[in-house]
TrEMBL record:
The active site is at 55 (proton donor). This is Related to 2,5-diketo-D-gluconic acid reductase. Belongs to the aldo/keto reductase family. Gene3D superfamilies: NADP-dependent oxidoreductase domain. The keyword Oxidoreductase applies. SUPFAM superfamilies: NAD(P)-linked oxidoreductase. It comes from Pseudozyma flocculosa. The lineage of its organism: Eukaryota, Fungi, Dikarya, Basidiomycota, Ustilaginomycotina. Keywords: Oxidoreductase. The record marks 84 as: Lowers pKa of active site Tyr. GO terms for molecular function: oxidoreductase activity.
Length: 284
């Protein structure tokens, strides 16, 4: 494994753009708090923010990035901003309008780095419709890369059969829900995996193995989980509105889990029963 650091980034299929490995999630971050959290995240070194239309805080993420550029000397191109669309509108043109509205809300030099289909739940035709609209947005230069989220193997196979490969698939991944069939498929096809709920929303804070490892490496249980995600080759997207946690969740590069400890965490997989996120998962 090459040495990881805050600047580590993934190459993305079909693009010269790189995606910083560590992301910052803003789901459930109230709109009046998001700006301060994202600004704190940028100041702590995160350069990748994960948002969605559904989270209703695209505008506030954009405000934070613009403030960071104005006050801290940051540059737009240093930040990888992702948003997502949930479902198709009445026509592809109407869907395209909705995508453009997100770009306008974020107001980040007229483009987003990445636009994802949030879930595959709109059926074969709906998925095609959303993908076509995203391709048009990309052709307009308003999204640099496009991808999917919560796609299972069958949805990904459907895309590959149609000659399309998303750059990214964002799914729930942590030791208790590892989604191995999807991970294998994505790795085989060069699709970067973003891991949501990487700290399992705190559900395993009291887990004995996690606490043993936290003591061993002198870090928090959350840092153990985030380091596991990094070492597995995923892009974890921890969310926090707590300033001290925003900082500690990015402090992941002064320790490395021994392979034997990664292997022990690998044994925790409970398949679908281990999932805490909102979407159905596909497990081995
Ligand atoms: N594509 C999808 O369908 C989908 C689904 C779910 C999530 N996501 C994305 O993935 C991101 C992360 O997932 P998530 O927010 O559901 O779960 P998560 O990041 O696993 O957990 C977030 C929760 O953990 C708390 N927390 C954060 N750092 C902590 C620490 N060091 N110690 C103890 N508690 C800590 C947060 O509280 P405080 O905020 O109070 O600190 C928050 O309640 C989301 O924000 C979103 O961007 C995508």
């Amino acid at each position: 494994m090459s040495k990881l650091n805050l600047e580590s980034a993934f190459a993305l299929k079909g693009s010269s753009l790189k995606m910083p490995v560590l992301g910052f999630g803003v789901y459930n971050s109230p709109a009046d708090v998001t700006k301060a959290s994202v600004l704190a995240a940028l100041r702590a070194g995160y350069r990748h923010i994960d948002c969605a239309q559904y989270y209703e805080n695209e505008q506030q993420v954009g405000e934070a990035v613009r403030e960071w550029i104005a006050k801290d000397g940051g540059k737009r191109e240093q930040v990888f901003f992702t948003t997502k669309i949930l479902s198709p509108a009445s026509s592809e043109d109407e869907t395209l309008k909705s995508l453009r509205q997100s770009v306008d809300k974020a107001n980040l030099d007229g483009y987003v780095d990445c636009f994802l289909i949030h879930t595959p739940t709109s059926g074969t035709e709906g998925r095609k419709h959303l993908w076509n609209a995203l391709k048009k947005l990309r052709d307009e230069g308003k999204a640099k890369v496009i991808g999917v989220s919560n796609y299972g193997v069958k949805h990904l196979e459907e895309m590959v059969a149609a000659g399309e490969t998303p750059a990214i698939n964002q799914i729930e991944i942590h030791p208790w829900c590892q989604q191995k069939p999807i991970v294998d498929f994505c790795q085989k096809h060069g699709i970067v995996l973003q891991a949501y709920c990487p700290i399992v929303r705190g559900a395993y804070a009291g887990d004995p193995l996690l606490n043993e490892l936290a003591d061993k490496y002198k870090v928090s249980w959350a840092q153990v989980l985030l380091r596991w995600s990094l070492q597995k080759g995923y892009s974890p997207l921890p969310k926090s509105d707590t300033p001290s946690r925003i900082v500690s969740n990015a402090d992941l590069y002064s320790f490395e889990l021994e392979q034997a400890d990664v292997d022990r965490l690998d044994q925790c997989d409970k398949g679908a029963a281990g999932a805490v996120g909102p979407n159905p998962v596909e497990c081995a």
